[in-house]
Automatic annotation (TrEMBL):
The chain crosses the membrane at residues 264-288. GO terms for molecular function: diguanylate cyclase activity. InterPro entries: CHASE_dom (IPR006189), DGC-Regulatory_Protein (IPR052163), GGDEF_dom (IPR000160), Nucleotide_cyclase (IPR029787), Rev_trsase/Diguanyl_cyclase (IPR043128). This is Diguanylate cyclase. Its EC number is 2.7.7.65. It comes from Roseibium aestuarii. Residues 447-491 are annotated as: Disordered. It is an enzyme of class 2 (transferase).
Amino acid sequence: MVPASLAATLCLICGLWVTSYVGSLVDSSDSARARNTLQRQVLEAEARLQGRVREIMSLGQGLEAYLAVDPEIDRARFETFTERLLQGHDEILSLHLSRGARVAFSYPRGAEPFVLGENLDANPDMYVTLEAARESSRSFLSDARELRSGDRGIMVEVPIHLPLGQSVAARRDRVEGTSVFWGLASFLVDESQLFQTLQLSVEPDTHVLRVERADTPPRPLEEDFPGDMKLATEVARISVSLPTLAPWDIVMYRLRPDAGQIPVGAMMAHFFGIAATLLISVLSFFLVHEVFQVRGLALHDTLTGLANRRLLEERINQLSRMVEREGRGYDLFYLDLDGFKPINDTYGHEIGDLVLREVARRLSVEIRNSDTAARIGGDEFVILTCNRMEDEARLMFVERLRSAIRAPIAAGAGSLSVDVSIGMSRYPEDGLTAQEILRSADQAMYLRKGEKSRPRPKPTSPTSRGRGGSTLSATALQPVKVGVPSEKPSC
């Protein structure tokens, strides 16, 4: 289960990373496409934008010409003239007229961003603008403004310079020294309405356009917009040529939705990416689990769950290489059940299988985690220890195994018991390969059976080494007591 869980976790982590990476690639592609679209639109609309701004500036020049005739204008005449002046210009939100540095008139009354009677010299945002208006009669755009209504406006500033004791013709000729600064006409233009007029458009739910000075520092990006949207990341910034005090850009921002307002496309992309990742992780879990299960079936006995001959030989060879480097040996015990065949013949294979499973369980209890218990035949078992025991400890261990196996086994309403013959072999004295070590222990086990006077054909002598394993006689085991301490030596 652990390898399968690890594989599934790795697939999940990799899948989420791939989903995030692909999402960033899609996001970059979308940003590049939006930048190219905006650049094309701005190039097409730049001339229209310049023309629209100049048209608004010409309105200010018309007001300037009217003031040259009526420099002592009052509120009523201002409002009447301004109402006619702004007809057909829905993008203009308001007009403020300052006489000197003080706001004298506004249309409509009370409109943003200035207050009647306000001293613009005391306004930090207007001081530079007012100084530029005093020094030159050239119209220009000043900074964009955030309004209390939630709209955003662009200020088109038209300095008012009236002729000094000369005709309007002299005023138009701008003869040096013939005009004096009278005040400032400030047109507040709705930014979004201006973009619509210029046919500059973006997806309103995901992007927004802004006109900003090129030297504007990065904004905090926490301004509220309709639909609980907030400015998020800058996508594109395109320079435009406008009559301004400093270079201006048209900037596109991508909107960041609040919780619950993620765009459907992005939400679906992440949903399918995460779903695919989870699916792959689950499939990986089951695949690796099945692989290890199949491998386990190939290396373990299906009846008892112990190691089979193939896995036992692999561990013998592996242990042989390890102990050879460390200069020590190990022990192998070959067990054959006595009296098992009559049980199988009398009670059937079902009871026989129960006996084998119980013997396997008891052997597993008697060994350490580092040792190996294997079933290599019908009623034949092998115990492989990872180190060499002293002779006395080895005899005690064999007696523990025999006592565990001899204990009655519950079978239905009654109980059964079997005996066991045990042969032993040692590495490297009794063999250097797995086959030799097993053959030596098998020979020793048959000798033990012979000592019990149970005739059974003996196997042929080993041809490769000609060695026999150790035999345990009944006499040798007489002094050993059952229930010896179960402390087991470590590898």
